Amino acid sequence: MKPSNNNLLIFILGPTAVGKTSLSINLAKQYNCEIISADSRQFYRELNIGTAKPDSEQLSVVPHHFINSKSIEEDYNVSDFEKDVLIKTRELFKKNQKIIVVGGSGLYQHAIWHGLDNDIPASDPELRKELNAIFEKDGIDVLQKKLFELDQETYHSIDLRNHIRIIRAIEVCLLSNKPFSKLKISEKANRPFDILKIGLNSDRSELHRRINERVDEMMAAGLLEEAKNLLSHKGKNALMTVGYRELFRYFDGELSLSEAVEKIKVNTRRYAKRQLTWYRRYDDIHWFEPEEIDKITALINSFN
Fold this sequence. Notes:
CATH topology of the largest domain: Rossmann fold
Number of domains: 2
Strand order of the largest sheet: 3-2-4-1-5-6
Helix content: 40-55%
């Protein structure tokens, strides 16, 4: 379907390590436009190696926004991001009618596409305290089971090792009497731009090879030292994620270093699978192999 106006937001989607960063930079250079990151961990300037940020050379080639924009000490959520992105797009569209959006945080992408459902309830301190007590007493498995009972769709897409995200999802289900996944799918907000969703995927064995290779490269680049420097912040939500939490367990003596690295690889592969599960809910994503740049460019040009 032809777009309704000339301003186009081009989303580069897909599982971690599939090649989104490289493609987004190539496209931004080709169309002389700028890049917005929708990766919720790349906001934080203290998190570098473990979040697979574009390196300094890549950042110098094309202007990027929402990378290194916050400190881990700052509170920043998806609602803040939605507001800030809408302001930023108005600014960037004055310079170019195309913007590339790249990043793997599904809820943050969804917020740009559809807006946030106003019915999502705020946190309830007493319920949060009760759920945290369950976690401390019975462990994360009990919370996982509870979430599965309340909302199987969120269960299959959320990071199941991140107890803060599980608790928040359970909290929303209980306070709203609706599955969290249903609340997130609101009627599409009116946006002053058109949206094109380009998905990248490769065969399973190739994706797993790329993931394993990336983890080895991260370790060689100093991920262990980066995680060590972040130990005092390990309770932050952004650090209860793949690549950091496994190394925190190493520092706590729960895992050997080789075990921690292997768990990073396994958990990253699982995360990639959850990302693909999330994207399957959207039927307007155009899927390509990472190497199909000519086909991708032809699709973008058809929106001119």
